Amino acid sequence: MSLENKTAFITGGNTGIGYGIAQALIAEGVNVAITSRSLQRAEEAAKKIKDSVSSKGEIMALELDVKNFEAQKEVVSKVVEKWGKLDFFIANAGVGHFAPIQELSTEHWQDTIDTNLTGVFYGIKASVEALKATEGFFLTISSLAGTNFFAGGAAYNASKFGLTGFTQAVMLDLRNEGIRVSTIMPGSVATGFNDHQVDEKDAWKIQKEDIGEIVVGLFKLDARTLPSKIEVRPSKTAKG
Questions:
Q1: Positive or negative: CA dihedral 44, 46, 52, 58
Q2: Tell me: the pLDDT tens digits for 126-138?
Q3: What is the DSSP string of the chain?
Q4: Looking at 121, 156, 161, 219, which residue is catalytic?
Q5: Which of 69, 198, 202, 233 could form a disulfide with 122 if both were Cys (CB 3.0 to 4.6 A apart)?
């Protein structure tokens, strides 16, 4: 199935996994809107993506804090106003605050839950009617941390365990409404997440363009079939 002239909206598409997804979709001729909490960063990323990909797909940069429901509704309206429809919503924006529970601040707990979980709830509430009109796709980016807990991960685990369950429940709510819903759960990805500096030591990890390819394949799959939860991990470990 061709994705040309489809329309996608990616929260947090200015870096990391969201950036890789935007590149892959633009290459397929999809019109893509990406967001950041900083409009300048979103605009810089949009220019880099457009310059790096030969495609007819357009790209638009928008400012968005996913913790603000009214702002999510506004940016969805802007996407529909510009391109006339919304086919794909990719809820990618996320944060990571890691600390033992004795040291985890209430502010970091709230920021993690509000961004990684409540922000996705706001996303589907803001986009559900637009997605019904196109029989579109709502995709969340969870994590293997959504089924595997680890020390120091109380806030992040809680947000991603919640996101995985939330997405699966929403999938059941909307599957007969013409909207497909799925989640991708990556393991170690070579991105700047949590201020990590990417270098040659990260070559063993999943690359952001790999997630982009998975998303393209998922969106191209015949609508009668839905991979509702996709776990992705590096083929080898760091010592492999």
A1: negative
A2: 999 999 999 999 9
A3: ---TT-EEEETTTTSHHHHHHHHHHHHTT-EEEEEESSHHHHHHHHHHHHHH---S--EEEEE--TT-HHHHHHHHHHHHHHHS---EEEE---------TTT--HHHHHHHHIIIIIHHHHHHHHHHHHHHHHT-EEEEE--GGGT---TT-HHHHHHHHHHHHHHHHHHHHHGGGT-EEEEEEE-SB-S-GGG----GGGTTSBPHHHHHHHHHHHHHS-TT----EEEE--SS-TT-
A4: 156
A5: 69
Looking at residues 145-151, what average pLDDT do you find?
Answer: 95
Distances (CA, A) of 56 to 21, 33, 59, 61: 16, 14, 10, 17
Ranges of each domain in the chain:
7-232
The residue-averaged pLDDT of 77-83 equals 98
**Does 198 score more than 80 pLDDT?**
no
* Whether the predicted pLDDT of 196 surpasses 80: no
Q: Say whether 19 is catalytic.
A: no
Between CA 72 and CA 21 the distance in angstroms is 20
pLDDT band at 192 (very low <50, low <70, confident <90, very high): low
Partners of 31 in beta bridges: 7
CATH of 7-232, one of 3.40.50.720, 3.40.50.1100, 3.40.50.150, 3.90.226.10: 3.40.50.720
